[in-house]
Amino acid sequence: MAKLSLGSTFSIFHSRHIRPPLAGCHVTKMTVADHHPSLEVVGGARDRFLPSLHTNLRLPYNPFPLIAWNRHVETIFASFFRSIPQVRLRRECLRVKDGGSVALDWVSGDHRRLPPDSPVLILLPGLTGGSQDSFVRHMLTKANGKGWRVVVFNSRGCGESPVTTPQFYSASFLGDTYEVVKHVGARYPEANLYAVGWSLGANILVRYLGKESHACPLSGAVSLCNPFNLVIADEDFHKGFNNVYDKALARALCKIFKKHALLFEDMGGEFNIPLAANAKSVRDFDEGLTRVSFGFKSVDDYYSNSSSCDSIKHVKRPLLCIQAENDPIAPSRAIPREDIEENPNCMLIVTPKGGHLGWVAGAEAPLGAPWTDPVVMDFLEYLERGASKTGKFLGDSEAVQRSSGELHHIEV
């Protein structure tokens, strides 16, 4: 399973447009201030996307006093005390090709309330995270309030998603993502599809965008708190206070694993089930179970080959990446800035503070939505306004009919 997110970690502890440069002129920097200097804004798609984000990015990034003075305080505060919007969800359990299951949580009633061509937003939480996470709920309610159809993709074992085979998910595994996007696209063939991922979910999303490249059925995506390079992230994960996060995530993984331990009791070969069941760190869990499940020679081999930093150059759909400079889980030095700057489809925003999944700043701080939410929605709505209705992913209606007998709906 692996690397990083805080997602639900701490639940364990309980209008002016900038004119483009004139043709023929070489301009390395726009002369007019197009964003506040407290923010780093770069990327090959910077000049293309930046005007749509003017309102938010022209203002200074003002972290909430006291809370944001320390990256760990901000990370923990956001996890413990950020409000959790109440929303009624309809759960769909999707059985995938290998017999595994994932849970899709839709906003209840939207299948009747929203027209079939309403844009669809797929949310990918982080490691051990799911629909219960406060930042997921805030994004869900904000997008839904603007007429977007939203679905949370709860990976195997996460968000009380069922585990029906002796295999969880991992940073390397894209199979479930392919099937979820295909299923959602087939259900709403008239709609444009978008996705937002946090932490491990962001890493998986960017890898998916890179693998699909020109064939990607998504019309755009957003990556938040992406660790990008899991080798570097793992190095930092064992330093100082970060050990607290490591142990918390390990406990979360063990808790999920022990609920389904009977599925794994006959596993032999290189598997070390006792190590996974009693892991004291995420690395222990990945050594005992994850790297063996997905055919890697070692944990380092797994992390090296599951990092999304190498996928950026292959992304052919609009992608906005937002990171915090002081993120303790997703180190700033792991951001593939050069590849983002060279890719005409990508833009990167780095805030000076924010912690991991914190961003306690902006109009709704300290208990409301993260600073990132209005930026994300401005970006997505800009894409939707300009999205072409042609050439989008057309689902296999026959496949949906075949799978309909394997789908189960409950209210949560």
Automatic annotation (TrEMBL):
Which residues catalyse the reaction? Answer: S199 (charge relay system), D327 (charge relay system), H356 (charge relay system)
InterPro entries listed in its UniProt record = AB_hydrolase_1, AB_hydrolase_4_CS, AB_hydrolase_4_sf, AB_hydrolase_fold, ABHD4
Ranges for domain AB hydrolase-1 come to 119-357
Pfam families reported in the protein's UniProt record: Abhydrolase_1
Which region is the signal sequence?
none
> What molecular function terms (GO) are annotated for this protein?
monoacylglycerol lipase activity; short-chain carboxylesterase activity
Entry keyword GTP-binding: no
Gene3D superfamilies per record = alpha/beta hydrolase
| UniProt KW Protease keyword | no
UniProt keyword list: Hydrolase, Serine esterase
Spell out the family assignment given in the record's similarity comment. Answer: Belongs to the AB hydrolase superfamily. AB hydrolase 4 family.
User: What name appears for this protein in its UniProt entry?
Assistant: AB hydrolase-1 domain-containing protein
Q: Which organism is it from?
A: Gossypium darwinii (Darwin's cotton)
